[in-house]
Amino acid sequence: MQNWQTYRAELCSQLKRQGISEPVLRVCSHLPRHLFAPELNLEQAYADRAMPLGHGQTISQPSLVARMTELLELSGQERVLEIGTGSGYQTAFLAYLAREVFTLERISELSYQAAKLLLEQGLRNIHFKIGDGYLGWAEQAPFDRILLTAAPPQLPEALLGQLAEGGLLVGPVGPQYEVQKLLRVRRRAQKLEYESCGDVVFVPMLKGL
């Protein structure tokens, strides 16, 4: 039976063949993904597909986590807002590659579990909040990057308003449980430029707590 390190190495090799960049691959090679989804067996945890997380949520497939991370164009100096902490797996990629991460989750149990796990991984540049993702985190705005891990029917004005000049927002947008568009939005010269980056299916982004 393979150990988890072998499964992780196979996953990283698969992502490399897909053209994922070296900085993102290094993060993948550091993270024990099975700890972020303890109810799954090792083969499931390191498979390149989305898996149920509980509370009606999922842990996104690793190749999509990697791709969305790349779309943010992180240099290591950014303050990033993440909408939807979930398992914390995507949060970890952000924490490795950005200066500071502010992650928002509406389900308190998921937030607490992710905070504990990420601290155990030695990541100290993450701030956690339980709240409504549609409202963002106004007290800490503006943000250089914003990442959505669930799909609203349209981008919330509050989030667009918290995006800094020159900043990027990446996230799925569209109807619940149907094909959605992965969008990248850049704020430049006080204008918003929209780019479609393909079709995806994410859980819906819900309002309230």
Automatic annotation (TrEMBL):
Keywords annotated in UniProt: Cytoplasm, Methyltransferase, S-adenosyl-L-methionine, Transferase
Molecular function GO labels: protein-L-isoaspartate (D-aspartate) O-methyltransferase activity
A Pfam family of this chain: PCMT
Principal subcellular localization: cytoplasm
Keyword check for Signal: no
Function: Catalyzes the methyl esterification of L-isoaspartyl residues in peptides and proteins that result from spontaneous decomposition of normal L-aspartyl and L-asparaginyl residues. It plays a role in the repair and/or degradation of damaged proteins.
NCBIfam families from the UniProt entry: pimt, PRK00312.1
UniProt family annotation: Belongs to the methyltransferase superfamily. L-isoaspartyl/D-aspartyl protein methyltransferase family.
Protein name stated in the entry: Protein-L-isoaspartate O-methyltransferase
Designated gene of the protein: pcm
